[in-house]
Design goal:
The chain is mainly beta. Helix content is about 5%, strand content about 40%. The chain is built from three helices and 48 strands.
Length: about 600
């Protein structure tokens, strides 16, 4: 029995061995494919901007005959500049398809990525590497030589209007014109734009330029457009056509020009820029040719937003000039006629200067910067040498003589007087040319200002005080025979001078500050202006006395706001603007406000 069991086990084991050693078929074998043959739709590819979204080139190749589903086969298309042996190629991967197509924009982007200039033709080598989906059995095709041209996207400049444009100084801060244009991209490069403008016919030989960075629009104020037009060659007060265009640049340096837009033409009528002040100098005046001129006798008064006026003695046979800055010969105005005419500037002023009238006497000169004209007419009225205020509306009451200097006016120019005084509502007052003398008086019928009346024409009830008790600025102009009464918000008395000090200025914190570069021009009794370079991230304050820290003014805003005094000024001082540049600072103690305007 044991013997039979052993035989049975042996039989089973032997059967198992024979079964395990049975021969099977050969494993699957995937043969090598063949290198594909690459062809292109054209050997010269020249897309245009209108082809941006159109297929402009197709590259095809033969079947590599790999032993797998063709949908899993992988193809790598390489494009590189001829002669670089594909060391800096750009690559496109295709799965399961024997071709690839490119739009005009795709090819343009490839050329831009290579760093090639736009608007030119370059030679390229192109090949395809085929493989299985797992990158095995890579085979390279033939190399195809193709020329491809890059293109520039044209720019269309669109103005808000092309109608004739008369620039008015009264609208100086308003928008004059705006422009929009389309993007002119070149790959992923940063493209900057600049709006250029020049007098028609100059062919942009020496254009005025406004750089806008990557922004696709620009808006120009009346004042800025007027300044640009004059700088381009359009004389103030004249009319001429100006041309505009936009130019794009590669990068941010504005060094590599790309595209120039269409040209837009607009006819402009300009005004002569209104200076912050005006003075008269010359041997026709009592001050002669000494510069700076005597003040306030030879300083003009501001009549309105565009005009200045002065009453001054002129000597026949002599001449004179008008200066925007006292003590500075850098700019001048004048004319060719003794009675008035076109206002000329700088080198256009005759070498013999503006002639005085034929008869020596007192004359009224009015200069209009909007029309670019001046007039010279005889003046028969009398301008007092001093002026005082008296009345129960004042702290001094009707006592005459009045207390001085609190009730004495300041002569602010050749024809005007100004004062800041407290006036009590329901009361009245008069103006006296001689303190302590009732024989001559001036006044008016309105509490806010109007026609200046003299002697018997002054109402018997005298000049009425405003409806609210408080401090007021009173300006009396004997050239225009007017007076104004305006609420006053500043320090009493207002400063007679103003200076700027701080590390935002060239003079730093040195005190006294350099003059005249850091001294304001007094525009009126309470208004001061200065154009000065300011450094971003710094600070400054205003001083009424140069070299004295005991009194200061300033603010908390970099762009302007309420004038603060002494301890109310922030300890960090008035912050300078965020962008370094030249700014016009206006400090108006009448309104209690200061403003900064980038020039």
């Amino acid at each position: 029995m044991k013997y039979l069991l052993k035989i049975s086990l042996f039989t089973v084991m032997l059967a198992t061995v024979f079964t395990a050693c049975k021969k099977v078929d050969n494993l699957p074998f995937y043969a090598n494919g063949t290198a594909v043959v690459l062809t292109g739709s054209s050997a010269n590819i020249t897309p245009t901007p209108s082809d941006s979204s159109k297929v402009v080139a197709t590259f095809s190749w033969t079947n590599p005959k790999y032993a797998t589903d063709s949908n899993t086969q992988k193809f790598i298309l390489e494009i590189d500049s001829t002669g670089r042996n594909f060391s800096k190629e750009t690559v496109s991967i295709v799965i399961g398809k024997p071709s690839i197509s490119f739009t005009g924009q795709q090819l343009n982007n490839i050329l831009a990525a290579f760093g090639f200039a736009a608007g030119q033709t370059f030679s390229f080598d192109i090949r395809v590497t085929s493989s299985y989906g797992n990158n095995n059995e890579q085979l390279k095709s033939n190399v195809l030589s193709v020329k491809i041209s890059s293109y520039l996207v044209p720019i269309t400049l669109v103005p808000s209007s092309t109608a004739d444009l008369t620039l008015l100084v009264t609208n100086a801060s308003n928008k004059a014109i705006s422009f929009n244009w389309n993007e002119s991209a070149y790959g992923t490069n940063v493209i900057n734009y600049a709006l250029q403008m020049d007098v028609a016919g100059n062919n942009f030989a020496t254009p005025q330029v406004l750089k806008t960075g990557t922004t696709l629009n620009s808006s120009i104020t009346v004042n800025d457009l007027n300044s640009l037009a004059i700088a381009a060659g359009i004389i103030g007060g004249s009319s001429k056509s100006m041309e505009f265009r936009v130019v794009s640049y590669l990068g941010t340096t504005y060094a590599t020009k790309m595209v120039t837009s269409n040209v837009v033409s607009v006819k402009l009528t300009t005004f002569t820029p209104v200076p912050p002040a005006l003075y008269i100098v010359g041997d026709a005046t009592d001050g002669g040719w000494s510069n700076p001129v005597p003040l306030p006798s030879q300083q003009f008064s501001r009549i309105d937003g565009v005009s200045y006026g002065i009453v001054v003695k002129l000597t026949a046979g002599k001449s004179y000039l008008l200066l925007p800055t006292n003590g500075d010969w850098g700019h001048k105005y004048g004319g060719a006629s003794a009675t008035g005419g076109a206002l000329l500037a700088d080198n256009a002023v005759p070498g013999s200067n503006t002639p005085a009238p034929a008869t020596t006497g007192m004359y009224q000169i009015v200069v209009n910067f909007q029309t670019g004209t001046y007039t010279v007419t005889p003046f028969t009225n009398t301008i007092p040498t001093a002026l005082f205020i008296v009345g129960d509306a004042t702290d001094g009451g009707w006592a005459n003589p009045v207390p001085t200097p609190s009730q004495q006016f300041t002569k602010i120019d050749g024809a005007s007087f100004g004062a800041v005084v407290k006036l009590t509502t329901g009361k009245s007052y008069l103006f006296l040319p001689v303190n302590g003398d009732w024989s001559k008086k001036f006044g008016g019928a309105s509490a806010t200002g109007g026609a200046l009346l003299a002697d018997g024409a002054v109402p018997g009830s005298n000049t009425p005080a405003p409806s609210a008790t408080g401090y007021y600025q009173i300006i009396v102009n004997f050239q225009t025979n007017t007076y104004t009464v305006t609420p006053y918000l500043g320090p009493v008395p207002p400063p007679s001078n103003l200076y700027i000090v701080g590390d935002a200025t060239a003079g730093g914190w040195n005190n006294p500050v350099p003059t005249p570069s850091q001294q304001f021009t007094r525009i009126s009794l309470t208004d001061f202006q200065l154009t000065i370079p300011l450094t971003a991230g710094k600070g400054y304050v205003f001083l009424p006395l140069n070299g004295d820290w005991s009194k200061k003014f300033g603010g908390s805003s970099a762009t302007g706001g309420t004038i603060l005094a002494d301890g109310a000024v922030p300890s960090s001082n008035t912050p300078s603007p965020a962008v370094t540049g030249t700014y016009l600072i206006d400090v108006n103690f009448l309104t209690g406000q200061y403003t900064l305007t980038k020039q």
